[in-house]
Design brief:
The protein is an alpha+beta fold and about 90 residues long. The chain contains four helices and three strands. Helix 2 packs across helix 4. The protein is elongated.
Length: about 90
């Protein structure tokens, strides 16, 4: 664990939107790690919503449908869905 914490400390971390297919990236030229929390949350939320709608689907099909739905959404819609979920129903546990 100590090695991991040291490695994290050697990089600059930014939480920002990257694009609809990238949840994280690193730019080795300046040691910047970018993480897209909106996309991470949106993908997880959509995956679980597909499970709710289609409880008998296997994980592969659930993931395919969730990704397909995310890809059809605009960036604005993705951010709005995540904001809506956090404001109205999200609780840290």
């Amino acid at each position: 664990m100590e090695d991991l914490l040291n490695l994290i400390g050697e990089h600059h971390i930014k939480f920002c939107w990257i694009d609809k297919s990238t949840v994280g990236s690193i730019d080795p030229s300046n040691d910047v790690i970018k993480i897209s929390p909106y996309l991470l949350i949106a993908e997880t939320l959509m995956h679980e919503m597909v499970h709710c709608q289609f409880p008998r689907l296997d994980e592969v099909e659930t993931e395919r449908r969730a990704r397909s739905r995310i890809q059809r959404m605009t960036v604005k819609e993705i951010k709005r869905m995540v904001d809506f979920a956090i404001i109205l129903g999200g609780k840290l546990c």
